[in-house]
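Can anyone check this?
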Amino acid sequence: MKVLYIAPLPPPINGHSLVSKEFYDSIVSEHNVEVINLRKQSLKEGVDSIQRIVEILKVLVRTFFKKSKTDAVYFTISESFTG
């Protein structure tokens, strides 16, 4: 099965990225997994910078083009409203 995996992966190392990595490692050997990494380039919270807004837009564009080529989509929930 082809899976589109949308989640934060380390680095940076935090609880959310570690759990996402563990789950990714458990499915990658049995499925064709394509990753869209939601990691933040920094640990700064929110969308208070142009850089973070650009990161979010890139994720949305990649997701739009890849979602139709997969059998399943795994999308982890965010820790906050702003991602």
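Reply from J.R.: I decoded it. Strands lie at 2-7, 32-37, 72-75.
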